[in-house]
Amino acid sequence: MIVLGIETSCDETAAAVVDETRRIRSNLVLSQLDQHRPFGGVVPEIAARSHLDHLDSLVARALDEAGVGFDALDGVAATAGPGLIGGVFVGVMTAKAIALARGLPFLAVNHLEGHALTARLTAPPNEDLGFPYLLLQVSGGHCQLVAVEGVGRYRRLGTTIDDAIGEAFDKGAKLLGLPYPGGPALEAAAEGGDPAGFDLPRPMVGRDSLDFSFSGLKTALRHAAVSRGLEGAGAGAPGVADLAAAFHEAVGDVLVDRCRRALARFRDDYGAAGPLVVAGGVAANRYLRGRLQILAEAEGTCLVAPPAKLCTDNAAMIAWAGLERLRLGHRDPLDFAPRPRWPLEETALASAPEPVS
Ligand code: KG4
Ligand code: ZN
């Protein structure tokens, strides 16, 4: 089984071809960063137009690199939400057109499900990642803990009550005068920094719920930056590395505390603490991966983290999620309406299959 995947929900135009043996035959990501950088964030209209300009040729290149034509495909999958709706439309219409012209199944993939299932694609050969697992989803728009019971079977255990974690990174970076996108810039800026001189809060730590909160940390970061004259200081300015490191430490403490509790809950519900899987753009952060790795080992389980370039947005994860759904007998109608908001819990397959591994 071979599936073409298309991702256009934010600022990356991406196309990929993945097969049932978990081989990523091609995986192309065209970043629009240069077009959005002058505005300090993603401009939806620019994003949608750029997807439109580049997607057709990117799909052709992805097929070419994969060494297959449309005839070899078993399905076409596209991110159908959540995301910036103009871009989502471009991807969905392209996928539907290919599906219609070639008589192929169309798969409307939830972007979050793409992230959630990536670890099953990237697990080493002979080490299949089966269900259930505990997923920490950390991206630009989300921060949630989810029990993944199967394809289309997600149980949310906790979520952020205010800002997404990636948003905290992006806004924190902007505040310190670091370039867009903020997450990787803040990670690079923290290199060699000493967190000891700053006292940032650890929101929600110790609470019984499995929710997150980042707005207080964001505000505390602003106060700390203002009081030390670091607002807009930029990478390399004295003190920026220390504050960036303190921010990482605070976020790390929060994630570790929440995940420790979630693993205990998961053990109660499913009989084993883990495995713990991390997904989404923020999962590319090496410091946070290290903290979660130590936690997982201390809790007697393992951390499964996809390679960094498959943590940030890509189309291989969309092709894979489409393939997982397709092989369970699912396909979507060509009048499927893209969804700007689309919770993971609303991805159930029509006839819920038994969990497979
Ligand atoms: O999953 P993703 O690529 O797009 C969404 O679906 O949101 O996540 C993007 C988010 C951005 O907020 C970006 O700053 C953050 O992931 N990010 C990082 C790193 N790389 C990307 N945050 C911290 N450290 C990183 N290395
Ligand atoms: Zn994403």
Short description:
This protein is of the alpha/beta class and 357 residues long.
Task: Summarize the helices and strands and which ones pair or pack.
Blueprint: E1 2-7, E2 12-19, E3 24-31, H1 33-36, H2 44-66, E4 75-81, H3 85-102, E5 106-110, H4 111-122, E6 133-138, E7 143-150, E8 153-159, H5 165-175, H6 182-189, H7 215-227, H8 240-270, E9 276-279, H9 286-298, E10 303-304, H10 308-311, H11 316-326
Parallel strand pairs: 1-4, 4-5, 6-9, 9-10
Antiparallel strand pairs: 1-2, 2-3, 6-7, 7-8
The structure holds 5'-O-[(R)-(carboxyoxy)(hydroxy)phosphoryl]adenosine and zinc ion (ZN).
Task: Describe the protein's architecture and organization.
The structure is a single chain. The protein is an alpha/beta fold. 41% of the residues lie in helices and 17% in strands. It contains eleven helices and ten strands. It has helices at 33-36, 44-66, 85-102, 111-122, 165-175, 182-189, 215-227, 240-270, 286-298, 308-311, 316-326, and strands at 2-7, 12-19, 24-31, 75-81, 106-110, 133-138, 143-150, 153-159, 276-279, 303-304. It has a five-stranded mixed β-sheet with strand order 3-2-1-4-5, with helices on both faces. A five-stranded mixed β-sheet has the order 8-7-6-9-10, sandwiched between helices. β1 (2-7) and β2 form a beta hairpin. The longest helix is centred in the C-terminal third of the chain and has 31 residues, at 240-270. It is globular. The two termini are 17 Å apart. The model has no long low-confidence stretch (mean pLDDT 95). The structure holds 5'-O-[(R)-(carboxyoxy)(hydroxy)phosphoryl]adenosine and zinc ion (ZN).
